[in-house]
């Protein structure tokens, strides 16, 4: 008796509606980064506004994809991995790129922003690795260990408000200081705090 032939995985055929929403999250985050680069290259604040505006779109897609997946009972490992990768782009790399675009370009700034993104990567990897252990009998995870990576949009909102009032570049609150060979904008330390909160094991945030 012949064994049933295993169906090969197809990226397009196996996509669910929720996965397209997840891609929308990643597209918006990538668009934000490109808009930030265009702002740095041209100085046109229209692109800076676009960079800020695309990140709430990413958050909306991120909010919606999980709910659509659960409502349609289409939760999958592919969807989980897609979600993590899209979140890293939109809520890790894109905010760091925005910070650079706003003027945090010193050597110490770069280290702080790289640390922030590394914390985001670690946070997402830890969640994927431990979700099954933290889940209850119904498969639902009741709390997050550390702050979820989308909380970085609180920083995006703060810097959006500052930039709207002209606090960009040399006008960033706190100015800049020279420490050894490199420059540091003290306000970049908010990204260090945000990243550290993501990887904390003592912070437990209820999961909606």
From TrEMBL:
- InterPro entries referenced in this protein's UniProt entry, alphabetically: CDP-alcohol_PTase-I, CDP-OH_P_trans, CDP-OH_PTrfase_TM_dom, CDP_ALCOHOL_P_TRANSF_CS
Gene3D superfamilies per the UniProt record, alphabetical:
1.20.120.1760
- Give the protein family: Belongs to the CDP-alcohol phosphatidyltransferase class-I family.
The subcellular localization recorded is: Membrane
Major localization class:
membrane
Protein's name in the database: CDP-alcohol phosphatidyltransferase family protein
Q: Which residues cross the membrane?
A: 20-41, 47-64, 85-104, 110-129, 149-172, 184-203
Please name the taxonomic classification of the source: Bacteria, Pseudomonadati, Myxococcota, Polyangia, Polyangiales
- Do you know which Pfam families this protein is assigned to? CDP-OH_P_transf (PF01066)
Q: Do the record's keywords include Lipid metabolism?
A: yes
Q: How does it sit in the membrane?
A: Multi-pass membrane protein
Question: What keywords sit in the KW lines?
Answer: Lipid biosynthesis, Lipid metabolism, Membrane, Phospholipid biosynthesis, Phospholipid metabolism, Transferase, Transmembrane, Transmembrane helix
């Amino acid at each position: 008796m012949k064994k049933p032939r295993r169906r090969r995985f197809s990226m397009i055929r196996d996509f669910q509606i929720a996965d397209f929403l997840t891609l929308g999250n990643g597209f918006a985050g990538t668009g934000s980064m490109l808009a930030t680069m265009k702002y740095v290259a041209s100085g046109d604040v229209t692109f800076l506004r676009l960079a800020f505006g695309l990140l709430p779109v990413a958050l909306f897609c991120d909010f919606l994809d999980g709910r659509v997946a659960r409502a349609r009972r289409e939760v999958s490992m592919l969807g989980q991995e897609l979600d993590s990768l899209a979140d890293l782009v939109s809520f890790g790399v894109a905010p760091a790129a925005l910070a650079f675009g706003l003027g945090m370009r010193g050597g110490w700034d770069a280290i702080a922003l790289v640390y922030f993104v590394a914390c985001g990567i670690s946070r997402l990897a830890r969640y994927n690795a431990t979700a099954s252990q933290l889940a209850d009998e119904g498969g639902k995870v009741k709390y997050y260990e550390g702050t979820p990576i989308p909380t970085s949009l609180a920083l995006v909102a703060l810097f959006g408000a500052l930039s709207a009032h002209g606090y960009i570049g040399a006008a960033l609150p706190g100015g800049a200081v020279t420490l050894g060979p490199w420059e540091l904008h003290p306000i970049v330390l908010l990204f260090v705090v945000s990243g550290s909160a993501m990887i904390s094991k003592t912070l437990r945030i209820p999961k909606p």
